[in-house]
Design brief:
Helices cover 36% and strands 20% of the residues. A hairpin with a 6-residue loop joins strand 3 and strand 4. Its EC number is 6.1.1.21.
């Protein structure tokens, strides 16, 4: 039969790499708890109109990248989520979560976009995100940026820069949009086909072009920040002041617009130069009108999402590798007849918090294998100790504990009282 393989751009995450994912996720959970953000989990499949309405009909995601299909049972239009914010907002609205005040939430999980797979960018990719809903003040914008900044420190990442911009409010954006379209109409001769297509439907996205031939024209285009009113500028200045007070460096990027239509006021990205063209590892901003667009009562919100694959790639680049977990001990069992007695001891050790890997041959009919082969596998496992359940030891009611990593003498321990010596086997966690 033909061998079945994974869909292109949708990758298996195998040990030992999966340990790096677990390590990152645990760091995130610990940090989110310190900032009082609580976990939310939403479905992978959502109604297609949720993303069309929330992200914008003329965004790249909606136009080109969504995995959408019709439910065969009822004809409903469904989509594998391409991002999580719209789903989080839908859940908050559906369950009336803001009835007693704002909520700080975070999520982890897979997203799906049909695009060309490349380094750190896949068709099934994973995001971790934070959303603060029901809070309108600039201090929450700053807090959520500080949360992401703190995560880089937790992970040991360096050389990540922060870019900021403000998209203002809808009336300010409309005034800028009119000026921008008038400017673009005068420079159609240097615009590529994609830019001309977007000129009227989504002119802000023209500013985000990567086409070198358009850079001079784009750099001279009207800047949205020059159209901001007093309130929007005051909001933005407060965000910057809080970041300054906390020693967080930033720069203004007037072309930073983000890929979704739901943003207003503060937008930001954390960027590295070490991942080539996929340099943005985290981005977000304020989206005060999305809750109402999705059918809820108007309420402000701000959030960000990071790309897990990109962050892990950056960890590799910076040699800030996550620790690779290994068992504390590896059980060497010369005689299969001893397995019932041995496994009683192993279960007791595991209940006491010791991570134990038991030797198990591929073919039990051939016995447990030689001591030499078992020790070879014990060493390859990364365990710090070998637990030797030889016939002589078992006859004395004991097990030999042999260090495999840090030197030291092997000792015998009584089988009857593992609680007395289990702690000596445990690695710091």
């Amino acid at each position: 039969m033909q061998k079945l393989v994974a869909i292109k751009g949708m990758n298996d995450i195998l040990p030992p790499d999966s340990a790096r994912w677990e390590w990152l996720e645990e760091k995130v959970r610990s940090l989110m708890a310190r900032y009082a953000y609580r976990n939310i989990r939403t479905p992978i499949v959502e109604p297609t109109p949720l993303f069309v309405r929330g992200l914008g009909e003329v965004t790249d995601i909606v136009e080109k990248e969504m995995y959408s299909f019709e439910d065969r049972l009822n004809g409903e239009q469904l989509t594998l989520r391409p991002e999580a914010t719209a789903g989080v907002v839908r859940a908050v609205v559906e369950h009336n979560m803001l009835y007693d005040g704002g909520k700080r939430l975070y999520y982890m999980g897979p997203m799906f976009r049909h695009e060309r797979p490349q380094r750190g960018r896949y068709r099934q990719f994973h995001q971790i995100g934070a959303e603060a809903l029901g809070f309108g003040g600039p201090e929450v914008d700053a807090e959520i940026i500080l949360l992401a900044h703190a995560l880089w420190a937790e992970l040991g990442l360096t050389n990540v820069r922060l870019e900021l911009n403000s998209l203002g409010q809808p009336d300010e954006r409309r005034a800028h949009r009119a000026a921008l379209i008038a400017y673009l109409e005068q420079h159609q001769d240097v615009m590529d086909e994609e830019a001309r297509r977007r000129m009227y439907s989504n002119p802000l996205r023209v500013l985000d072009t990567k086409n070198p031939a358009m850079q001079d024209m784009v750099n001279a285009a009207p800047r949205l920040i020059d159209f901001l009113g007093e309130a929007s500028l005051r909001h933005f200045d407060t965000v910057k002041a809080i970041l300054d007070a906390n020693g967080v460096a930033w720069s203004i990027n007037p072309r930073l617009v983000r890929g979704m239509d739901y943003y207003n006021l503060t937008v930001f990205e954390f960027i590295t130069e070490q991942l080539g063209s996929q340099g943005t590892i985290c981005g977000g901003g304020r989206y005060d009108y999305l809750i109402e667009q999705i059918g809820g009562k108007s309420a402000p919100a701000v959030g960000w999402a990071l790309g897990v694959e990109r962050v892990l790639e950056l960890l590799k680049e910076q040699a800030a590798q996550a620790p690779q977990p290994a068992a504390d001990a590896y059980a060497v069992v010369p005689d299969a007849a001893a397995l019932p007695q041995v496994m009683v001891c192993l279960q007791q050790l595991r209940a006491l918090g010791v991570a134990v890997q038991m030797h198990s041959p591929a073919n039990s009919a051939e016995g447990m294998g030689s001591m030499k082969s078992q020790f070879k596998k014990a060493d390859a496992s990364g365990a710090r100790f070998a637990l030797i359940f030889g016939s002589d030891e078992l006859a004395r009611g004991a097990v030999t504990v042999k260090p495999l990593r840090d030197g030291g003498e092997q000792v015998e321990r009584p089988l009857a009282t593992p609680a007395d010596w289990a702690a000596s086997l445990q690695s710091p966690r």
